[in-house]
TrEMBL record:
It comes from the Eukaryota. It comes from Melanomma pulvis-pyrius CBS 109.77. GO terms for molecular function: phosphatase activity. This is HAD-like protein. InterPro entries: ACAD10-like (IPR052898), HAD-like_sf (IPR036412), HAD-SF_hydro_IA (IPR006439), HAD_sf (IPR023214), PGP-like_dom2 (IPR023198). It holds the Pfam family Hydrolase. SUPFAM superfamilies: HAD-like. Signal peptide: none annotated.
Length: 278
């Protein structure tokens, strides 16, 4: 197949450890049906959901927002529908009386900060691949993000810093920059541009910026179908395809398989015999 001219990456769950892992761990630890938290986040609503607002940079990360986030995770109508569907599919144990149990009591602040801490660790397969691809391709990031106020403390009272946490030597990347943006030619943060995936305008902006960089390097520009996009959320990939981009799905805990697909798409050997020690 014809290699892409540019490669566009999601960050969480692709280039760094997925915050969904923190969500899964929280659900398992608190006996919450797996998938409920992601389901309630995706239910939004799109215009006013706490998670959607913070990722578009339309509100500040503070205690008021955490209260709104908790409410988003506690909508009884969403929970009843999800519980009945889950029970119907045999994925959860129904109560003897057939009644829907109370909505799970989720500590939204603790959950959020654990998601943020988890997603500071570079992915052991995808991160080294970024370093190898940089010299041959225009690399971009299109990430749904949060803008952190200066001096914000996490749920443990610790000053939060969003830099990458590289393992020390002999890790070959121990001295790399802690700023993930340094891995890319283009970095589009939803909270800073006011657009979040899967809004088609987000993909249009990404292609426009990748095209700009490629032309500045003396190329003939980049079209949507010459961009390969990697993401871990199905709806984001669905709308990327509708916007004309090529896509690779990165499943939770399976970034090695995604890097293998990336090898086939680019023609560049990316996987080492030994797993990178990050």
């Amino acid at each position: 197949m014809v290699p892409p001219k540019a490669i566009l990456f999601d960050i969480g769950g692709v280039c760094v450890i997925s915050p969904f892992q923190a969500i899964l761990d929280y659900e398992l630890a608190h006996s919450i049906p797996v998938g409920w938290i992601n389901h309630s986040i995706q239910k939004g609503p799109h215009d006013t959901g706490a998670w959607q607002l913070i990722e578009r940079g339309e509100c500040e990360l503070n205690d008021e927002w955490f209260e709104k986030f908790k409410k988003q995770l506690s909508v009884s109508e969403h929970w009843s529908a999800y519980w009945r569907k889950t029970v119907g599919e045999g994925k959860a144990k129904a109560r003897a009386d057939g009644a829907v149990p109370p909505v799970p009591n989720i500590n939204a602040k603790a959950l959020f900060w654990e998601m943020m801490r988890t997603s500071r660790r570079p992915d052991p397969w995808m991160y080294p691949a970024l370093k190898k691809l940089r010299k041959d391709f225009v690399l971009g990031a299109l990430s749904n993000t949060v803008a952190f106020p200066t001096g914000i403390l996490d749920d443990r009272g610790v000053l939060y810093t969003k830099g990458l946490t590289h393992l020390p030597a002999p890790n070959p990347h121990a001295d790399d920059s802690e700023d993930i943006r340094d891995c890319f030619d283009v970095f589009i943060s939803s909270a800073h541009v006011g657009l979040r995936k899967p809004d088609p305008k987000a993909y249009e902006l990404a292609v426009k910026e990748l095209d700009r960089v490629q032309r500045e390097r003396g190329g003939q520009g980049v079209k949507a179908d010459e961009v390969l996009f990697l993401d871990d959320i199905g709806v984001n990939l669905k709308w990327a395809k509708k916007s004309g981009l090529r896509t690779i799905k990165v499943d939770l805990g399976r970034t090695r398989e995604a890097v293998r697909e990336l090898e086939l798409e680019t023609g560049v050997k990316l996987l080492d015999e030994e797993r990178a020690k990050l």
